[in-house]
Design goal:
Length: about 450
């Protein structure tokens, strides 16, 4: 076997992951291949297709040396004996399981390309997040080959967007699942060596394939569930006068609960939490585990309710009508430090505000291009990079993304240019509410009465 590594799929996962693997394994050739010419062109330019702190530097350190981006998927497969598959696995929108199951068409297409183009034995690594037992189907496709042997491993990725490079460089754990026979163990060992160049061995966990696939879904479901849990408490806080930040602080100091993922807000966004929880719901139902399915589905239902509540409260604060009023969305990315807007709470909120016939102006330091695509269906929306201009003559500002740059704005100046009663809804609880109130704003926040 040679030491070269290919990755099919140059997206949010394939690009950063392979860039770090290439940087940490300068003696290996790493080829990232994608069917999208535009994406590959962007990876080969100075204007990378995704914004991620530190990514530009890592790519610059090895691109053209041992890291290559190409649309020639077939050549990448032939040149490399370890092949990662990091293609998209969105929720199915048609046919059986629509709205819940993962759409595996891109993934199966990748498997069939590997089968067609392989010129020797290969280790195939699932990097995409997949339903449990997908490796079985992949093996079923690949084992139809008469000449060559394919070993399918599961190596799910745990990085979060916005901190991808740091997460890749300092992972809590790297998980590698594989068949427990001799061939499987050798393949696991080959992949362990890729990560062991920078990750200490005690953080590299090896399991059977099904535990690995299951652990990825379980990790995302547990994280999403924490957000829905704290958001459920935030609704109750708004009714009772309890303060969600104080409650979260109390909870977090219990070391059994822990302090992370307890920030109430507009609900989770991003391409994965909703998709993966719905996939889990589908899996549970398909095994007849209806109580388990209902339990996990409630995490998504709670998340949707949080976004609806934000709009309901906004309408109520503006005398039960938004018709003709101007609303500024501060932030459109699903979280700070990314330009990614997939499943962003800001989109749901924007659509609900538009249903109330509000005019929208959207500002965001990195996500305006994506926002313009996502909101192209709305008649009355404008996009403004400068938050001061975005806020001019608006009735309300909804802070949707926790960008640092919003914490240091001159709110007095913004207030002076707004229409009265100048509402600000801090859905991320990042601003100084007492100061805003003193300036004259009518202030709403999640999980507290201001
Ligand atoms: P993405 O849409 O950004 O990237 C997927 C890429 O695969 C696209 O560029 C697409 O053109 C390419 N592609 C699709 N079919 C192909 C084919 N047959 N051959 C070659 N290229 C093909 O998606 P993403 O955000 O990178 O997510 C990919 C997978 O990783 C998903 O399963 C996701 O759940 C998982 N994941 C994502 C993250 C994240 O932070 N985004 C984190 C952990 C896991
Ligand atoms: C998440 C997981 O954190 C990663 O481990 C995983 O690899 C990834 O999904 C994936 O499988 O795609 P990501 O979605 O990039 O990563 O970002 P998170 O930091 O998890 O944030 C997700 C959403 O939850 C964001 O909208 C964020 O604002 C929200 N969130 C997060 C809260 O509302 N409160 C919190 O306390 C934390």
């Amino acid at each position: 076997m040679n030491r070269n590594i290919a990755c099919i799929g140059a997206g949010y996962i394939g690009g950063p992951t392979m860039a770090v693997i290439a940087q940490k394994n300068p003696d290996r050739k790493v080829i990232v291949a994608d069917i999208s010419q535009a994406r590959i062109d962007a990876w080969n330019s100075d204007d990378l297709p995704i914004y991620e702190p530190g990514l530009q530097e890592v790519v610059a350190s090895c691109r053209g040396k041992n890291l290559f981006f190409t649309t020639d998927v077939a050549a990448a497969i032939r040149e490399c004996d370890i092949i990662f598959v990091g293609v998209n696995t969105p929720t199915k929108t048609f046919g059986a399981g629509a709205g819940y199951a993962s759409n595996l068409q891109y993934w199966e297409a990748a498997a069939r390309t590997i089968l067609k183009e392989a010129n020797g034995d290969k280790i195939v690594v699932e990097k995409s997040t997949l339903p449990v037992r997908t490796a079985d189907s992949m093996a079923a496709v690949l084992h139809t080959h008469r000449e060559y042997t394919f070993t399918v491993l599961s190596n799910p990725e745990f990085l979060a967007e916005g901190s991808a490079i740091n997460d890749l460089l300092n992972p809590d754990r790297v998980l590698i699942g594989g068949p427990q026979d001799e061939q499987g163990k050798a393949a696991i060992d080959a992949l362990v060596q890729v990560y062991a160049t920078w990750v200490s061995r005690d953080r590299i966990l090896t399991t059977n394939v099904w535990s690995s696939e299951m652990s990825k879904l379980a990790a995302n479901a547990m994280l999403a569930q924490r957000i829905s849990s704290i958001n459920a408490f935030s609704a109750l806080c708004e009714e009772t006068g309890a303060d969600i930040t104080e409650v979260a602080n109390v909870l977090g100091m219990d070391h059994r609960i822990g302090k992370y993922f307890l920030k109430a807000g507009p609900g989770f966004g991003g391409s994965c939490f909703k998709k993966d929880v719905l996939n889990l719901v589908y899996l549970c139902r398909s095994y007849g585990l209806h109580a388990c399915a209902d339990y996990w589905e409630q995490v998504v239902i709670m998340n949707d309710a949080q976004q609806e509540r934000i709009v309901e409260r906004t309408v109520k604060a503006l005398f039960n009508t938004l018709a003709g009023k101007r609303m500024a969305l501060f932030g459109f990315a699903f979280k700070a430090n990314t330009g990614d807007t997939r499943e962003t709470p800001a989109l749901t909120v924007a659509n609900l505000l538009a249903e109330e016939h509000a005019d929208l102006v959207v500002t965001d330091p990195k996500a305006l291009e994506n926002a313009a695509k996502d909101l192209a269906h709305l008649p009355k929306v404008t996009f403004e990079p400068d938050p001061y201009l975005a806020a001019t003559n608006v009735d309300a500002i909804l802070v949707m993304t926790e960008w640092d740059c919003y914490k240091t704005l001159d709110w007095k100046q913004i207030y002076a240019n707004m229409r009265q009663p100048a509402l600000i809804f801090d859905t991320r609880n990042i601003l100084d509410h007492a100061e805003l109130k003193q300036i004259g704003f009518k202030v709403l926040a999640v999980g507290k009465i201001i």
